[in-house]
Amino acid sequence: MRPVSIETGVVKHAEGSCLIRIGDTAVICTASLEERVPPFIKGSGLGWVTAEYGMLPRSTGSRMRREAASGKQGGRTVEIQRLIGRSLRAGVDRVALGERQITVDCDVIQADGGTRCASITGGWVALKLAVNKLLKARAITSDPLVSPVAAVSCGIYAGQPVLDLDYPEDSEAGVDGNFILRGDGQLIEVQMSAEGATFTRDQMGKLMDLAEKGVAELVEAQKAAVA
């Protein structure tokens, strides 16, 4: 893993917030609580966790145009924020959360590979801090977060399995993957693809082993941040 740091309480008005840095990738994650749910689950007694994701114009080497200026989100953005939302929901007991919604916003201020993984990892910290406020206010009686959720990228670069790819490694990796796991080791999602080179089942297993190691380190950082 590249160096990992998580600073909490970085946004005054959010119920939960953090700045997560993994190497030179930096993401601000906030969690906002609303006492309502989307219409499709209204009256069900279930809570909802959703996410939004964006990259600031100078988070990359050259300025990118704000998506708001073009009037719509790009396909990559929509895919990533759906991934963040369903990943975080996999660690939530929605009955215990009650009929309320928590929206996790992930804003990339600096990108050097693994922004979606950093967003999921930091997003869980922001979510946990927001839930802690609910518990402190006795709005809920038990912690609805059944396990931490974290994510890491792995790939085959220069013929070798590599954990936590930075941008130069990611852009040249023969095989690239994102691994989302719960803290108890349960898999949430695995995205793997050949980027100019195929891979064997044995190589996939080695990447999975690396991912489990990386996620275990991230979970320890998450727990330390919210302690």
Q: Class, according to the CATH hierarchy? A: Alpha Beta
Give the % helix.
Answer: 25-40%
Q: What is the arithmetic mean of pLDDT?
A: 96
CA-based gyration radius: 17 Å
Q: Kindly, what is the distance between the CA atoms of the first and last residues, rounded to a whole number of angstroms? A: 22 Å
- Share in β-strands: 25-35%
Topology:
Elements: E1 4-8, E2 16-22, E3 25-34, E4 48-55, H1 67-70, H2 75-89, H3 94-97, E5 101-110, H4 115-136, E6 149-157, E7 160-163, H5 167-172, E8 175-182, E9 187-194, H6 201-226
Parallel strand pairs: 4-5
Antiparallel strand pairs: 1-2, 2-3, 3-5, 6-7, 6-8, 8-9
Summarize the structure in short.
This protein has 227 residues and is of the alpha+beta class. The chain has 6 helices and 9 strands; from the N terminus they run E-E-E-E-H-H-H-E-H-E-E-H-E-E-H.
